[in-house]
């Protein structure tokens, strides 16, 4: 075997992984872009979308790396194309770390995903990170540390909606062995 073939075999990310990750990015983007509600309660806008549910499903079923990549790229691309480009670098970090946190807690290689309790713990800790990350983002972007408080309820609702949709979907996909 030559060194090129050996290098390809030693890589942990193969063509199948690339295709799955690309599809997860697309699913997160579509769920964010086309299934959303703009919030009237936040001073600086705000959005509830199903992209968070897609991020949760990606992270729990496919692990921290794919979940982080899907969340970071899928939602940052949405920001760029939706007129919120200033948010894109922050979203990339916040959502990437969120996916990584959820996947780190809820995913195990042998079992694919742990039981419901671990999934919920992962979602809660990832959600706390998301709320804190977007609070800091608004503080930086708008130069005000009290106004971002108005975004916390919307972000919490977004996490709750994502969990309520994502967890049953995960259970169904696991039961049907469709992932």
Automatic annotation (TrEMBL):
<keyword id="KW-1133">Transmembrane helix</keyword>
<feature type="transmembrane region" description="Helical">
    <location>
        <begin position="69"/>
        <end position="86"/>
    </location>
</feature>
<feature type="transmembrane region" description="Helical">
    <location>
        <begin position="116"/>
        <end position="136"/>
    </location>
</feature>
<feature type="transmembrane region" description="Helical">
    <location>
        <begin position="92"/>
        <end position="109"/>
    </location>
</feature>
<feature type="transmembrane region" description="Helical">
    <location>
        <begin position="43"/>
        <end position="62"/>
    </location>
</feature>
<keyword id="KW-0472">Membrane</keyword>
<keyword id="KW-0812">Transmembrane</keyword>
<feature type="transmembrane region" description="Helical">
    <location>
        <begin position="18"/>
        <end position="37"/>
    </location>
</feature>
<protein>
    <submittedName>
        <fullName>ECF transporter S component</fullName>
    </submittedName>
</protein>
<feature type="transmembrane region" description="Helical">
    <location>
        <begin position="156"/>
        <end position="173"/>
    </location>
</feature>
<dbReference type="GO" id="GO:0016020">
    <property type="term" value="C:membrane"/>
</dbReference>
<dbReference type="InterPro" id="IPR009825">
    <property type="entry name" value="ECF_substrate-spec-like"/>
</dbReference>
<dbReference type="Pfam" id="PF07155">
    <property type="entry name" value="ECF-ribofla_trS"/>
</dbReference>
